[in-house]
Each structure stands twice: as C-alpha cells, then as structure tokens.
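Field reference: sequence -> structure
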Amino acid sequence: MLLKEYRICMPLTVEEYRIGQLYMISKHSHEQSDRGEGVEVVQNEPFDDPAHGQGQFTEKRVYLNSKLPTWAQAVVPKIFYVTEKAWNYYPYTKTDPRCLSLRSIEYTCSFLPKFSIHIETKYEDNKGSNDNIFDSELKEQEREVCFVDIAYDEIPERYYKESEDLRYFKSDKTSRGILQEGWKDTQDPIMCSYKLVTVKFEVWGLQTRVEQFVHKVVRDVLLLGHRQAFAWVDEWIDMTLDDVRNYEKQMYEKTNIKVCNEQPQPSTPNPSSPDDKEIPDKAST
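Structure field:
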C-alpha cells in the first residue's frame, strides 16, 4: 500500500468551488472521452448519509485501455474499465468548523481484485496549512505530503493548452490572476483541496511499480483538473447549483454517447451445431 496526501491550492473559496468542481468534472470528462474510451456515467443521484447528511452519489466506468503503459496492456482484456464510486457531501461539518466539505472516491477493477484506489478529500479556506486534517483517517499511518502548484508545476505535454496556462490567464469576471511565482502567499481568496490517496496493488513483484505509476497518474489528473477549474472560472462563476446540475446532466448524456456508442462489441458466433461452439476464455469474456 502506498499512501500520499496531496494539497492543491486555488484562488477560489470553498463555496465557489462547489460549483466549479461539478462544472470542471463534467466538461473534463467529456473532453477526455473519445473513440470508445473515457468516462461512462452509470448513476448520479442524491444520497443521504446518517453521519454526513445529504450528498450526491455517482458511479462511473472509466475505460482506459489505450492509456495504460505497454506492460499493463499486455495483461488486461481489450474491453477494460475501472469502476469509480464517489460520495460527495457539501457542506460537511465535523469537530473542526473550518472543514467545510468531504468527498470520498473508490476505484476498483473486477479484472484485478487486488487493485484499489481510495481518495478522501476535504476542502478548507486556507493555503494548505492544516497538517492535522486527516488525523482521524490516518490513525498514525505514515504518509508523504505533496504540494501541487496549479500554475508552476509541469503538466504532461499532451494536456497542455495555452488558454489554461495560469501563468498568463486572467479572469475577466473575477479579475483574479495572473498567478505569479509565490502567488499562494498573497492570493485572496484562497482555498485548498486536501486529498488523501491510498493505492493498493497486492501482487508480488509488481506492487511497488504499479503503486508508484498509479500515484503519478493521479497527481497528473489532480493537477490538470484543478488548473481547468480556475481556467474555466468565467464559464461557471455565475451558475447556480441548479444551473450546474442541469449542465452536468447534459454533458454526461453527451459523454455516454461518445463512450458507449463506440465501445468495441464482442463478435457474435454464427448459428451452428452445438459441436461447433467454443467456450470463451476468461480474458476474452
């Protein structure tokens, strides 16, 4: 098991990011889905939790075969997806009144039963200065703390867009930006996404390699998503919660069409005598 805590600051408030997060996830999922790969939304509905109150439950299938490294593609089926289950509670109140919200995500794969990712997220209006935010979840476990700078950390070249480069972006509607070196020390407002990420791949000989690779992918996704949330701020800042939920519904429907309609379909055997039929192996199934 490899445990890391990521801290990502943004020039927003926690309440603003409630809208921005929903907008960003919907638009990002649509952009990253193509040719039968990407994110299929299976379920997205309100959910009541006895401890945290009213929230939103979402289940997705993430198809990503071509995005895997060569050594991983060799051992997974052609039609391969990871199941994402997310519980989002906004706002969320606990002992520390500064902790305003909670988001919990689990990733599993039926093909790899010993593989899982768990992401626990909490948001606060600060610069990432709370070292005790996950005390109850960690229970004295060691973790590496990684600060992610949405403006100056290097992003994979395939994800780079000049319009989303926060070193040069300035919001017309909020007048926030350009984010200069050391922007976190002077920015107001500012908030932080605290993400406790646990990756497990309990297979001897591959565990360290896979867990380190997955954390690198997770970090790249977190960097890109939070960059886009601010780069697109002028698109969502005037939205209400109802507005963004309607947008979310429309985008999920469009994304599902892109992903599901282009999924490769298993071949249908020609009708023949029982003696001619073959039993498929587990991988092809």
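Note: DSSP finds seven helices and eight strands in the chain.
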